């Protein structure tokens, strides 16, 4: 029965949202009566919340997720550097880790006038469509990059890179410069610059980025702040 309850929670991947009982049952592939019983249990446990005729993820899931040791420790270590990066750029700052072929966002800091973005804390986007994802992918070893480049590349906008050769070139440039870029590939009108974060030798443990409206994107002005934040956090993680 546990696997059926998890199948209901999986309906909310990757974007959350809210659903009616019939929608949850259909998407989870469960009979309506079974879904009704399980949803009632999930609401009672705080894993789902009811809002009229719709259900959304409950606060208990957020509380449990925030306690996952690796993610919690990384986020706590990163916060001072992310806040400094936001103060120096006054633009939206992201912090994320790799989970298979996606980036999962652990933190997002923005001002009151932030532009709409597809990213959210706990959400995920394809590695190849984001600056953070490219920063992670570029330093995650050739096997992963080769596997991703061998298949169809996901596209979130018309500007998402669909050509494997073009993406490989971008990853090679990131390996040289230590910086990754995104030009309207996850959201129209938004550009990003990112850098990987290391805790020692080997693959990066995370990456951070600054997202800017395309018309205000000045990579040369943002690069020093992004590099400084990534290097400072990497140094802290190595010493910890």
UniProtKB/TrEMBL annotation:
**What are the record keywords, sorted?**
DNA-binding, Transcription, Transcription regulation
Q: Which residues form a coiled coil?
A: none
What name does the UniProt record give this protein? IclR family transcriptional regulator
Instruction: Give the signal sequence positions.
Output: none
The molecular function GO annotations come to: DNA binding; DNA-binding transcription factor activity
Q: Which InterPro entries match?
A: GAF-like_dom_sf, HTH_MetabolicPath_Reg, Tscrpt_reg_IclR_C, Tscrpt_reg_IclR_N, WH-like_DNA-bd_sf, WH_DNA-bd_sf
List residues of the IclR-ED domain. 60-239
**Which parts of the sequence belong to the HTH iclR-type domain?**
1-59
User: Mind telling me which PANTHER family this protein's record contains?
Assistant: HELIX-TURN-HELIX TRANSCRIPTIONAL REGULATOR, ICLR FAMILY (PTHR30136), HTH-TYPE TRANSCRIPTIONAL REPRESSOR ALLR (PTHR30136:SF24)
For this protein, the record's Pfam families field holds:
HTH_IclR, IclR_C
GO BP? negative regulation of DNA-templated transcription
Highest taxon listed in the record's lineage: Bacteria
């Amino acid at each position: 029965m546990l696997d059926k309850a998890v199948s209901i929670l999986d309906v909310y991947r990757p974007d959350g949202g809210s659903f009616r009982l019939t929608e949850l049952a259909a998407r989870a592939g469960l009979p309506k009566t079974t879904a009704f019983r399980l949803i009632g249990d999930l609401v009672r446990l705080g894993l789902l919340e009811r809002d009229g005729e719709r259900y959304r993820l409950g606060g208990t899931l957020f509380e449990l997720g925030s306690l996952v040791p690796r993610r919690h420790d990384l986020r706590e270590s990163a916060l001072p550097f992310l806040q400094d990066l936001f103060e120096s750029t006054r633009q939206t700052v992201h912090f994320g880790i790799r989970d298979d072929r996606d980036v999962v966002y652990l933190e997002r800091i923005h001002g009151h006038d932030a532009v709409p973005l597809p990213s959210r804390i706990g959400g995920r986007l394809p590695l190849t469509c984001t600056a953070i994802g490219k920063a992670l992918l570029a330093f995650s070893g050739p096997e992963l990059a080769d596997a991703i480049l061998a298949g169809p590349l996901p596209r979130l906008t018309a500007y998402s890179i669909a050509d494997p050769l073009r993406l490989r070139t971008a990853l090679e440039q990131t390996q040289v410069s230590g910086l990754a870029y995104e030009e309207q590939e996850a959201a129209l009108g938004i550009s990003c610059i990112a850098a990987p974060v290391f805790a020692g030798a080997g693959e990066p443990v995370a990456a951070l980025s600054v997202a800017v409206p395309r018309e205000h994107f000045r990579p040369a002005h943002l690069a020093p702040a992004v590099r400084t934040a990534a290097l400072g956090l990497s140094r802290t993680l190595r010493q910890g």
